[in-house]
Design a protein that fits this description.
The protein has 211 residues and is of the alpha+beta class. The chain has seven helices and six strands, in the order H-E-H-H-H-E-E-E-E-E-H-H-H. The chain is elongated.
Length: 211
């Protein structure tokens, strides 16, 4: 009986150790990935067809302007600085787009660190977590969200093609270590298993089970 009790205690301690180690691993990986990207987040006024269509028009106009001022950007720090210096212009473009399409909603634009779900862009998948982003709220911002990655430039790809351009991948690869890059591209079965572990633990963390 004593042996069984000792075995149970050892097993429990081993489980706790593995869990803590896995959590530390996931936290380090996700932190470095999130620190390497900058995202765009557009939230519609509501889920009505009109408001959702307006969201996409705002998105297109914002991305068009973004492309015109960040064509030579090579680092996340550069794009954050450019967007910060032009925040009023992004607000103006979004607000004017709303008015030009016959709506009277107010628009708010801000840079911050926001929660994102797991999201796939072509053949690259970013885990759920908190990412720096430019956030655009339209009206009550009660509708469905739209996301993309501003840096590396993944807002301009055809997601349906299932392929991220090589130049964007090269930027990603230069920003991340080898293991992190293999994880988000799910390059092999080992990476897919690790990503699944990250997915589970990140969801537990976001839900508040792990802090």
């Amino acid at each position: 009986m004593k042996i069984f009790k000792r075995f149970t205690i050892l097993f429990f301690l081993l489980f706790i150790y593995i869990l803590i180690s896995a959590y530390s691993y996931v936290n380090a990986i996700c932190t470095n990935i999130s620190d390497s990207v900058f995202r765009l987040h557009v939230i519609a006024n509501s889920d009505s067809e009109e408001d959702q269509n307006l969201k996409y028009i705002v998105r297109d106009n914002v991305i068009k302007y973004l492309d015109s001022i960040t064509s030579n950007v090579n680092t996340k720090e550069d794009i954050v600085e450019i967007i910060s210096n032009n925040l009023d212009k992004f607000n103006e473009i979004a607000q004017n787009t709303v008015y030009e399409n016959g709506f009277s909603y107010n628009v708010s634009v801000q840079i911050g660190n926001f929660e994102f779900p797991e999201k796939t862009y072509g053949d690259v998948t970013f885990p759920a977590g908190y990412y720096d982003a430019l956030k655009i709220n339209i009206g009550d911002a009660d509708g469905q969200n739209w996301w993309c990655v501003m840096f590396p430039p993944l807002c301009f790809i055809d997601v349906s093609s299932g392929v991220v351009p090589d130049d964007s991948k090269e930027i990603l690869e230069s920003e991340l270590n080898e293991e992190e890059y293999l994880l988000i591209t799910k390059a092999d079965n080992k990476s897919k298993i690790k990503f699944k572990i990250i997915e589970v633990l990140q969801n537990l963390k976001i839900s508040g089970i792990f802090m």
